Every structure is written in C-alpha cells, then in structure tokens.
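QA checklist item 7 of 12: single-chain prediction sanity check.
[x] sequence parsed
[x] length recorded as 170
[x] structure emitted
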Amino acid sequence: MADGHDGDGAGAEAYLTATGERLRADGCDVTIEDWGGTPVLIGHRGDFKMRWMATKLHLFTIAAPATRVTAASLETFSTSAMDYVLARKGQLRGLQNGVAVFPALVGTEIEPAAAAWAQEKQRLRFAALARPVAVDARTGAAAAFRGNPSLGFIYAAHLRNKLNAYFPVA
C-alpha cells in the first residue's frame, strides 16, 4: 500500500498481536479488518462516567503495520481512522456521547517528524478527538500526545491511562 502502509514483517506483527492482547485484557472488542490489502487491528470500548458530566465515551484503537512512518502517512492514517470511527459511531456524538480514537502506525522506521507530530497535540472534530501514535516496532517506543488539552480535558486522564495501557512507553 502507498504511504508506507505495506507492512514490515515480524516486528510490527508481533507488536500488533501484543496490542490486541492488551486491548482484549482491558475489555475491548477486537477485530481485524482489511483496509486496502493491509490488516488493521481495531479495538473498541465504551465507558460512561458521571464525572464526565454523565457522558459516554466510545474509544477506538486502530493500528496498522507500516514500513516507514512519516508525519504525512500518520496524518493520512489518522484522518482515515477518524472518518472510519465517525461513520460507525459519529451519529452518537453530541451532548451525552463522545468519540475518541488512537490511530497507530507500527513500523521499523519512524521519522523524527512523525514522532514530533504525534506528540504535539490531540486532533479535534466536533465531539470527537484523535491521539495519533507512532510506534517503533524494534524498540516498542510509542510517540503520542499524553498531556492535558484545553478541549476534551474531562477525558484526559482516562485517555492517558488507556494510551499507556495499550501503547506503553518503552
């Protein structure tokens, strides 16, 4: 597949398998879908908390292998992941529901600009957010925004905990 989504062999596959196990252990529904010839790991869970002003957050983790992760390929994949999530759960967004996604590319070559782009900030749409992840399959290093944003702050601790559980800092 173009933009570096053509896989990288055993390293990315092993990382994605372990990620699927971490998602299942946390109670996520996990599937593998074919996105243009690339197997994509998709995990989903929904959580409701009163402290979130009585809202439900649908959290998706969408991860795919990539030989080389660039800022452009991660941005493109993040947009595709957000579009996918909004097509599945977007009708629920609004006052009582939110949607979040961790779009992750797992590769053996991570450009520094890709890691920097992932760590910069979360990406927002109406009642939806994305925290892109660039994973180095060789080291397990996962670059992502793990901070506290001004918009969507009520979910920040939850998202950081899930991000750390699914994509541990190496």
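[x] summary fact logged: The two ends are 28 Å apart (CA to CA).
[ ] second reviewer sign-off
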